[in-house]
Specification:
Two copies of one chain form a homodimer.
Chain A (H helix, E strand, L loop, with lengths): L3 H10 L1 H12 L11 H14 L3 E5 L6 E6 L3 E11 L19 E3 L2 E3 L3 H22 L4 E8 L9 H7 L1 H4 L3 E4 L11 E3 L1 E2 L1 E10 L5 E2 L9 H10 L22 H8 L5 H8 L10 H10 L4 E8 L8 E2 L2 E10 L5 H14 L6 E8 L2 E2 L5 H14 L4 E3 L8 H8 L3 E3 L15 E3 H20 L4
Parallel strand pairs in A: 3-6, 3-7, 7-18, 8-17
Antiparallel strand pairs in A: 1-2, 2-6, 4-5, 5-19, 9-16, 10-14, 10-15, 11-13, 12-14
């Protein structure tokens, strides 16, 4: 057994170096949706992996490559895998950022950058833990596998291809997913599942270009068509009206409902931080958490039609687009819901509205009783000084299903972000202290899992 | 009486010069909604007016100035006034233009530019006619008054201020409004009225910024709020459901319905040009024209929410905006409709939706039997070789009411554009031959109206 205190001391002594490394990673844009900076980001990662002596294979896809790496450790019978992604969300709307999204400016003990938490902070805290073991002990406690994809933010279109091609690379004893969240000055969250996602565009075109709006008297307006179609898809109480949408939704079990009680969801803080008057249907307590974690959604993620600049322009749009993301829960499947949307629209005469699938990801839930899950939960208190919140399913989505469902992996999620990290939003940030703690947490999990025994 | 043929010959001989002048005007952007190039455009006009010896007053407003000019003519007892505007619509969406909107490129006998028809072509054809009289006869047939505003495309917010301040400058015998349209290889349209316009934004904000879309389970989505509000405002048959919206709509008179029969509206051509499958409710013939010219509209001119770039971004919008233009017919008034929209939303619980009035213009109809109207109609055949279409009301809007209603002016509209000029849309253009004809038409109206007598 290696003394973790020595590792913690090393991490504290080298904090500045770790911070600068994260800034360097954040300053390299890597926006998969816009295909900006992806290759440059890959090179930056490869440079870092090379300095750690990781044996690397860059697996090319028709999109962005998947970087696979391995490192041997003392316990050769136990493997710990880390999944992360090196792509980030687009930074827009730029005007709402207080500093350049790729400047990685430090203010008030935080690094502000697109990707600071999601997912570069999470990716690096694990690499930094590896470096700490190498520098302090010259060895790792167990075998490490690294899987970094560059298309998580656009729905991981090539991850199953990788899983099918390299089944041996997925073999592992513990599977740590990309990241998780933490209360500010409160407990770390450890979670075992994610919602699924169907991302679609509803497109309508009624004319070959935008027209003078005097034509609105006689020409069908595609924005009105979309408005009228959408109005059939959800009621005023946020109940989704797409025919058959809830058919395959499993009601939460008694155990799942019990888990909600362990969560420390700070409603007032959330409302204040996001600037909300209240939650949907004035929900609160367990009802709120039930809806957040166990219920599916049908979100309008974007609506674009006609003139969207400042001031008045009297045009009638020739075409209009709605982006929708629908978060799914077990056992809803993306293609099932896609089909239901299409049939729902057809049945109501909206055959002129095209439904385009941009991405889909089934929901996934791991077994919270497995050795790795239990080990991670046990590691939290020594590092953070308090027990974790244990979350059956995150309210968000990652491509867990593709890996974990068929390979039978029980993925566990924990990371470096917190509830105010603004991931996917302007002014994304990471608290530097959280980042350093997350390095220690990663190291602790490596050491403890190397020695953990099935009971 | 001056020989108009000499004027026509002069115009033909100087066509190239007139074309280059229009290109020069089009190359100067003057986008009132974005406050781009307005002063530079004023200078360009003043240079031209100065070379014609026009006595000019630049009337400053808190927005863009109104240029007023006078020129004396032989018949001192008759005045002809020309209203035009020097501002243009924004050129967006730029990617749909085949050439730069401010390059004024000539292709296939047309000048392509934002403002080529609306309204720089119309403004200049009248100035060019003045130059032709000056060069050929050294005099004008009658007194000319010029009123050029720079805010027509944003609802003419300072035109009534001008009318109130300078009532004597509005005194005239014939009032020619900014422009009109023409069938391609077909009749010129002469019209006597316009629809009104209420331009509003519906704004909704539920959070202080865009959020990760996992929050869609519990946070109200402002785009959904707007969709649900809009869905209460119009039915699937394009009937507007805003409470009391049609209360003050006058049914078309028998005479007005008769006028529709004189129109040569080429339905198939319109459908093909605009790329339409058909018109709203499959209307055709008189029913179609009745809706186009005599019925009000409630158009979604723009809808902006969340992520509107390429690809997928899983955000929940923090705010959303709908731009609406509502074209009004006698006797609907903008503020009346604004009030009705507000009350309609409040009654249905949409008190969280802000209604912001961007501009308003009442509808206006002149008397088609007055001397000037009759003179203009009579001038068309000698210039164009065929009788005009006589339109009681255009389907569009200009600020006629502000001038004409209180000053008792019977405005007549005729111009240089055609039905495929793409005004307010990408690839706006003017047919060069139409522009030259419009110069001759303006000259003919000056001459004939100088000599016309009340019957």
């Amino acid at each position: 057994m290696r003394d973790l205190q020595k590792i913690y001391d090393y991490v504290d002594a080298h904090a500045q170096e770790y911070i600068e490394l994260l800034q360097k990673f954040c300053r390299q844009p890597s926006i998969s949706a816009q295909n900006i900076g992806m290759r440059e980001m890959v090179d930056l990662i490869l440079e870092e992996l090379s300095s750690l002596g990781v044996s690397v294979d860059v697996v090319e896809t028709s999109g962005n490559p998947i970087i696979y790496g391995e490192l041997e450790g003392v316990n050769k019978d136990r493997t710990l895998s880390f999944y992360n992604h090196y792509d980030v969300q687009p930074p827009e709307p730029l005007e709402e950022w207080k500093s350049d999204p790729f400047a990685a400016e430090i203010r008030d003990g935080k690094i502000y950058a697109r990707g600071a938490t999601d997912n570069k902070g999470s990716l690096l805290c694990r690499l930094c833990a590896i470096r700490a073991f190498q520098e302090v002990y010259g060895e790792l406690p167990l075998r490490i596998k690294l899987i970094y994809e560059g298309e998580e933010e656009i729905g991981s279109p090539h991850l199953s291809e990788f899983a099918e091609k390299y089944p041996e690379r997925l073999k592992t004893d513990g599977f740590a997913w990309e990241g998780g969240t933490k209360q500010i000055n409160g407990p770390l969250e450890v979670s075992f599942g994610v919602k699924g996602l169907l991302y679609i565009e509803l497109r309508c075109r009624t004319a070959n270009s935008d027209l003078h709006s005097s034509n609105a008297a006689i020409v069908k307006n595609p924005a009105w068509r979309l408005v009228q179609a959408l109005a059939t898809m959800k009621d005023a109480n946020d109940h989704i009206l797409i025919d058959g949408f809830y058919d395959n939704v499993k009601a939460p079990t008694a155990y799942e409902m019990e888990c909600l009680k362990t969560l420390d969801y700070k409603e007032d803080e959330v409302k204040q931080r996001m600037g909300l008057d209240g939650f949907i249907n004035d929900l609160t307590g367990i009802d709120l958490l039930n809806k957040l974690y166990y219920q599916p959604t049908a979100n309008i993620a974007g609506f674009k039609a006609g003139y969207i600049g400042d001031g008045a322009k009297t045009v009638m749009p020739g075409s209009a687009v709605v982006k929708m993301d629908l978060r799914l829960v077990p056992d809803q499947m993306p293609d099932e819901i896609l089909d239901k949307v299409r049939k729902h629209l057809d049945k109501r005469g909206f055959t002129d509205i095209e439904v385009v699938r941009l991405s889909g990801e089934p929901p996934f839930r791991a077994n919270p009783e497995c050795l790795f899950a239990q080990t991670v939960v046990k590691c939290v208190k020594p590092v953070y000084g308090m027990d974790p919140e244990v979350l059956v399913s995150s309210s968000g989505t990652t491509a867990m299903y593709q890996f974990c469902h068929s390979a039978g992996l029980d993925a566990v999620m924990f990371g470096a972000g917190n509830v105010a990290s603004n991931i996917h939003a302007p002014n994304e940030n990471i608290i530097i202290e959280d980042y350093i703690q997350a390095i220690k947490m990663a190291a602790t999990v490596m050491e403890e899992f190397a020695n953990a025994k099935e009971s």
